[in-house]
């Protein structure tokens, strides 16, 4: 005798298996490459799984706070400001970032040519990596998503004022905009000018208004603005039609 109940249950299992979604989304080719390379490095003894975990946790927690403190200190101390421009690595170390050993547990940075670009009343700097997404991670943390997009990378070097305007930053015509292109070995950070209305402020107070976007050069520090929220934007348009 055929057990119809068993057949029904068997069919139900097949139907269920066909409809269950995978636990994770399909991974990208880059993720497959990262996994393969990581496992090969661990197998070859280049680093251990524990060292990889520690570095990953370090990379996820770093941010622009040391850079903001560096700029704030430079605003208050002319000698330190001169050091920041002439020996950016030494100035970074003074705020706790050693570019030769940024993690503090034996993992050196692969780039040590770091330059802090000081804005002036007539020159404004903004950084980009036109080729990919080179960024001064040891002192600014991970780059924002928009910094890595072709839209930003390709257009900033051609139409910097238009791109800055899309971030809400409108600069007078008599201010020169200098776009500094980072590369595999050379990284940059912007030191904006101290804004008016901050006389008598402490280093802590000044550091609060020096946001990540100010350090990239797509924003200016302002009293009361302590986040990276873009408050004035407009749609990207062709330069010929931009207002």
UniProtKB/TrEMBL annotation:
Matches recorded under Pfam families: NHase_alpha
InterPro entries in the cross-refs: CN_Hdrase_a/SCN_Hdrase_g_sf (IPR036648), CN_Hdrtase_a/SCN_Hdrlase_g (IPR004232), CN_Hdrtase_asu/SCN_Hdrlase_gsu (IPR023900), Thiocyan_Hydrolase_gsu (IPR023901)
Biased composition (Basic and acidic residues): 1-18
Annotated Nitrile hydratase alpha/Thiocyanate hydrolase gamma domain residues: 29-219
Gene3D superfamilies linked to this entry: Nitrile hydratase alpha /Thiocyanate hydrolase gamma
Coiled-coil region(s): none
GO terms of molecular function: hydrolase activity; transition metal ion binding
Binding site for Fe(3+): 129, 132-134
Keyword Transmembrane helix included in the entry's annotation: no
UniProt protein name: Thiocyanate hydrolase
Residue numbers spanned by region Disordered: 1-20
Swiss-Prot/TrEMBL keywords: Hydrolase, Iron, Metal-binding
Highest classification ranks of the organism: Bacteria, Bacillati, Actinomycetota, Actinomycetes, Mycobacteriales
Source organism of this protein record: Mycolicibacterium llatzerense
Membership in a protein family: Belongs to the nitrile hydratase subunit alpha family.
């Amino acid at each position: 005798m055929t057990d119809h109940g068993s057949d029904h249950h068997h069919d139900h299992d097949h139907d269920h298996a066909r409809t269950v979604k995978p636990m994770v989304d399909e991974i990208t080719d880059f993720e497959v490459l990262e996994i393969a390379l990581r496992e090969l490095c661990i197998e070859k003894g280049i680093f251990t799984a524990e060292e990889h975990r520690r570095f990953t946790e370090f990379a996820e927690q770093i941010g622009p706070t040391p850079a903001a403190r560096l700029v704030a200190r430079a605003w208050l101390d002319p000698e330190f400001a001169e050091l920041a421009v002439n020996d950016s690595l030494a100035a970074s170390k003074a705020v706790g970032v050693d570019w030769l050993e940024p993690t503090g547990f034996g993992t050196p940075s692969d780039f040590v040519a770091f330059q802090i670009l000081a804005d002036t009343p007539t020159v404004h700097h903004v950084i980009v990596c036109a080729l990919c997404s080179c960024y001064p991670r040891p002192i600014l943390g991970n780059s924002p998503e928009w910094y890595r997009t072709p839209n930003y990378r390709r257009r900033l070097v051609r139409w910097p004022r238009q791109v800055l305007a899309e971030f809400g930053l409108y600069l007078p015509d008599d201010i020169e905009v200098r776009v500094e292109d980072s590369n595999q070995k050379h990284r940059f950070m912007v030191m904006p000018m101290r804004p008016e209305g901050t006389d008598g402020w402490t280093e802590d107070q000044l550091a609060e208004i020096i946001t990540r976007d100010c350090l990239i050069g797509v924003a200016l520090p302002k009293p009361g603005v302590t986040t990276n929220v873009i408050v004035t934007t407009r749609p990207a348009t062709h330069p010929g039609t931009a207002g």
